[in-house]
Amino acid sequence: MVQLLQPTLSWAAEFSLAQWENAGIMSTVHYYSMRQLSPYQGTVQIVELPGFRAMSIDGGTWQVQALRQPSRFAVYGVWRAGASQIIDNEHTHALLAALENHPPLPFALADQLELWLLDATEEHLPLALLASTLPQRSPPRVTQAVWHPTLEGDTSFVAPSLSAFSVAALPHRDLIAQRVREAAGPLACAQWFARDADGHGLGRHGLRIGESFIGRHLDTDWFPELLVSEDWDAARDRDLVRDFHDWQAPQLLTHPNLSRTTRARLERAACRQAEKLYALRALLPEVIEHDRVQTAFVEAVIRRSARPMAVSA
């Protein structure tokens, strides 16, 4: 199983984005985000400096972790603007300054090394995103190539496009997983790609990858824009994958590299999940349909304010 690599301080020193001077000490601070994958669970924002890192999935609440061993962190406390559990002292002053003065959210995606499940064609093109990690590291060895659409036991994905079909009594997450598995073939292949700023990919090692595929260059258009390719022969399969992405729309909208057409489509889908979208409002790099999104935010606030009243009643 490929696991998401945790950011390390050695990498931080190589990827400095900002510096703060606190108590006469110049501390290297850097801000970045990573996708949570295997399965996909949105993005996590990270503030990192020597001895500490803080991580947030919504941009408001930050879990602070302290370095206890050369590469191991332990939970230190929670930080929120105006409500911090972290005491300001000589050890934490730089951390608190970095959190209080962080640049605009969302931070740039830094996990530019991507592991893709490949399709079963002769070209072995990217089909579904399995994992990602930070650049300037050797990606972990791939031992299996299985794409998981949701966390184990989560059957909340329902594809509206399947309502017109008589399908087996399987959760829709299992149906999309089955289709992706079939498209990958009986001996699934996976490959790491180093993506550049323009989205081009340089192929590295993987699973069941021939030597001729290592070092290959793929243009941006050969990579799915989202999590799974939406290019399928059957309309039913295309609709199923689009439904899955629409279900993930609030989290996907935190990605900064979406086309405006895709972002507008995901906004419309996310507005049908108003509370999830509202929870991630600080992480939206761009909004296309402002009125529609603002209406969804108002709906979410009304629902949240009404919930305690409904419980007490």
Structure description:
This protein is of the alpha+beta class and 313 residues long. The protein folds into 3 domains: 9-100, no CATH class; 113-244, no CATH class; 248-313. It has helices at residues 9-14, 93-100, 172-184, 235-247, 249-252, 260-270, 274-279, 290-312; strands at residues 18-22, 25-35, 43-49, 52-56, 62-69, 72-79, 113-118, 126-133, 190-195, 201-207, 217-218. A 6-stranded antiparallel beta sheet has the order 1-2-3-4-5-6. The longest helix is centred in the C-terminal third of the chain and has 23 residues, at 290-312. Mean pLDDT is 88; it is low at 1-26.
Architecture blueprint of SSEs:
Layout: H1 9-14, E1 18-22, E2 25-35, E3 43-49, E4 52-56, E5 62-69, E6 72-79, H2 93-100, E7 113-118, E8 126-133, H3 172-184, E9 190-195, E10 201-207, E11 217-218, H4 235-247, H5 249-252, H6 260-270, H7 274-279, H8 290-312
Antiparallel strand pairs: 1-2, 2-3, 3-4, 4-5, 5-6, 7-8, 7-9, 9-10, 10-11
Notable characteristics:
single chain, 313 residues, alpha+beta, 3 domains, six-stranded antiparallel β-sheet, five-stranded antiparallel β-sheet, 11 strands, globular, disordered N terminus
